[in-house]
Amino acid sequence: MSTSSTRAVFAARLAGLPVFDPAGDQVGKIRDLVAVLRPGGLQPRVLGLVVEVFGRRSIFVPMTRVTSVDSGQVITTGLVNMRRFEQRPTETLVLGQMLDRMVTVRETGAAGTVYDVAMEQVRNRDWVISRVALQEGAKRFGRRGQTHVVEWRDIDGFAVPEERQGTTHLLAALDEMRPADLASVLHDLPAKRRGEIAAALNDERLADVLEELPEEDQVEILGNLGNERAADVLEEMSPDDAADLIAELPPETAEQLLQLMDPEEAEDVRRLMSYEERTAGGMMTTEPVILPPDATIADALAHVRQAELSPSLAALVYVVRPPLEPPTGRLIGVAHIQRLLREPPSSLVGAALDTDVEGLRPEATLEEVARHLATYNLVSAPVVDDDNRLLGAVTVDDLLDHLLPENWRETPSRTAGGPLGRVGLRTDRG
After folding, report:
1. Distance between CA atoms of 210 and 264, rounded to whole angstroms?
2. Element (H, E) at 269
């Protein structure tokens, strides 16, 4: 292995690093490390890495398959087991379960919170956790607690389960992850730890993550939040995703949450829940970009620049008569972003419209929606009522969510044929 056995590698710095095979093709990204705690103060053995491969599936890569670790990448032999990673009872997730634990230094009795751990390779070529980075619990004179790096053998506290474990340092390690990546990390954590992390996220971040999780994880997390907090998070979700989630809850719970939500947000969700799930109405979002005909091109471009918009929603601007909230006034036409980019910013958006676009009825089936998007080469299309009032928009990603199998988030993608095509089925996980 090319990394030096005398150099410690801090675990939190590995989060999100790319993992490559010997040919230089990326296999995936590191999401966590798997260790086994040992009695008698022995240093925990690091068994391997939890790696998210293409298709958002987490697999286990044994440390015996890791040939190089440095600050920017990890290289493996490419021979790994493609079965989904499932944590065993004797295993501990280094980032997910060790960070933020309260421990004590045996000699001094000083207490601190774990913000990182260091691993290194020993003579028998095993990887072990050798040191623990601590932040003192006490804060004096308003200052942040001091930090120390302590040898593993000098620490007490890892063997005792905690009633509640903190989240600060784990969240810091995962802070820059996209919602879909953080969702994968949460999915692989034990239920208790998953609930702690979810509770620590702010409403907007948690809403983004929930939209990327399987339904059973969504229901579990929402059920542990308490009704007031759950309603706040549902308000931050896109109405179509919130409607899908609420539909999975017991009717009494669903009604309680709808009553607690902002009335306008709840009205959108109720409207979406009134449609059959596998129809245009059941898939659509009620929050596309909607403007009046006297808005300028500059106004339209400012709206589609919003970071929270998906690319498919940002591709079209829907121009309608007032009112502008669905169900709107009559749909006049749509403005394609490519056309908007070619027009002077001061021009009116009404002069750049495609008025030939046909709206979908809310009862249109999946097949009809797919045929419509394919026929007109669209990534988004309006959904209208009998009076041509805009009810919402259905996007190609909404369509794919419903066309793919229910467990598609847990199924590996075969599109990245290079790296996955060379992955074998060997494992040294003991």
Report:
1. 21
2. helix 263-273
The pLDDT of residue 39 is 76
Q: For residue 166, with 0-12 CB atoms within 10 Å meaning exposed, 13-18 middle and 19 or more buried, which class applies?
A: middle
Q: What is the pLDDT of residues 353-370, one digit of tens each?
A: 999 989 999 999 999 999
CA distances from 10 to 71, 95, 264, 368 (A): 10, 11, 48, 52
Question: Structural domains in the chain?
Answer: 9-89 (2.30.30.240), 96-156 (2.30.30), 176-281 (1.25.60.10), 289-400 (3.10.580.10)
pLDDT at 430: 53
- In DSSP notation, 310-328 reads -HHHHTEEEEESSP-SSS-
**The residue to which tokens 């992390």 are assigned:** 197
Tell whether the torsion through CA atoms of 15, 18, 21 and 26 is positive or negative: positive
- State the pLDDT confidence band at 422, using cuts at 50, 70 and 90: very low
Q: At 265, phi and psi to the nearest 5?
A: -65, -40
- Enter the tokens of residue 105: 């230094």
At which residue do the structure tokens 């490390």 appear?
Answer: 33
pLDDT at 231 over 50: yes
Cα–Cα dist 98/185, whole Å: 15
Residue 247 CA to chain centroid, in angstroms? 21
308 burial type by CB count under 10 A (0-12 exposed, 13-18 middle, 19+ buried): exposed
